Amino acid sequence: MKSVNPLLGRTLAVADDLSVDEQRYLYRKTRALKEAWANGGDLEPYRIRDPELGVYLMFLEDSTRTKESFRNAASFHDVKLNVFDASTSSFTKSESLVDTVKMLFGYSRRSIFVMRTKMEGVCRALEEQIGAYADRLGRERPVFINGGDGRHEHPTQEYLDQFTFLEQKNWDESYLHVALIGDLHHGRTIHSKADGLKAFRSVKVDLVAPEELSLPTSYKLRMMDNGFEVREWASIDEYLSAGDVSDTWYFTRLQLERMGDEVRERETELRRAVTFRDQFLDRLPEMTRFFHPLPRHREKPVIPSFLDTTTLNGWDEQSINGYFTRIIELAMVAGRLGEDFRGESPAEDEDDESFITEIPVTRKTDVKDRFKVGIKPVTAGTVIDHIAKGKPEEEIWNRVDKVRRTLKLNVRSSHGVFHTNNPEEFKGIVSLPDILEISHTELKKLAAVSPECTLNIIRDSSVIKKYRLSMPPKIYKFSEISCKNPECVTFPGAYQHVQPFFYRTGGETFTCRYCGKRHAYGDIWDI
Length: 527
Ligand code: CP
Prior knowledge:
By secondary structure, the protein is of the alpha/beta class. The chain contains 15 helices and 19 strands. Helix 2 packs across helix 12 and helix 5 packs across helix 12.
């Protein structure tokens, strides 16, 4: 039976793991908590108070704000707080992360893991793997909260940023015009904004970064898919000269340690392009506020320290908000809050099978006539037709080969590349006299390997069943696919055997379920 509290037990791996309605609920509760805290009000309605709830902080990369705000938030809740020290544990001896999490999971009746990792997509993978382990034991599934995974996402930073923007806008959700400035390429707090900014009904985003630090195209496309207006400049100076400047500036630090020597050699120039200078002050709109997820660089901050005592300083309050938003996040996923939530939750991941269509066979087709050119006629069997129709001949041959290998068609067959009815156009055909039936799973596989082909089942030289296949919404369970992001949790050797899984995200684009990297259809295949 489904829980009456839709927020209980929810993993927060990416910003989109909370629907817009759920995020707004988080912001309303945080606002109420913050006001109660400031005014000496009753904080008990927010407190979990469960000594058998283990909150494990597993920071496998450095952190100050995320770790300390979660540590303080967990202490507020009066739960069992564990701070896992990766540097002094056997984890440094290549111990398996899954085994370590399993062990900690065994120490509490209920558990929440807050994770920071270099690998991308770890929380989603753990949600699946430890979730299945909990199911086998008949125990409550643990929650995983992503405290920043590589260059991928930092959803709880995003929620605190949104909360801060709303606070600054006097809780007006109708419109946000924000400038994102700095290292947009590596900044995971920026990447989480591609979905997180949906909390505002209308959004204009100004991207300010030199090319080397610019936002990856996949996030830009996601912003546009979400209906944001997106504009770009290479430096703060250029941005200020363009007019229509935002009053909400969000800076991020330069992560030069993640860049190659060529880029690092240009550090001074790149830093200058995204560093605020005093001569810009009188070009800012009235009431402008600056934000920064922190840390700032000690010697060369993009927001210089002389601005700390000015009205531009929104980052100090932003940093304090980390405590309040994280108290509410823990209360939500632990089920302390959420029963009064009304609104939409993220859609369930349902199976859509419309990419397989059975076409009525209206007329008995003479197979000998249809497949006679250069291919052995079949009286009974299966013929896969229209493979990579209209593509260049080399690509059709590759696809024919891919069909044969991925479906393991190691049986008698004839195959080749032929004209369609149009003499200028080609297609592939594979004719299989030994295959008399095809399972639904194989049809799904064939659609993934060769979308837009048809499959004919033949008896007594006539087609008795025909299917038209198109691009499926998901591609997974193939040993021949892989995510091409070396930091992805699915990358061989990166973690612990996580099978690649892609969602179709428009046209022939597929996005990795774990690290969010977008791929062209052809790029997900290794053959
Ligand atoms: N903003 C942020 O993630 O800071 P830490 O790296 O200190 O956690």
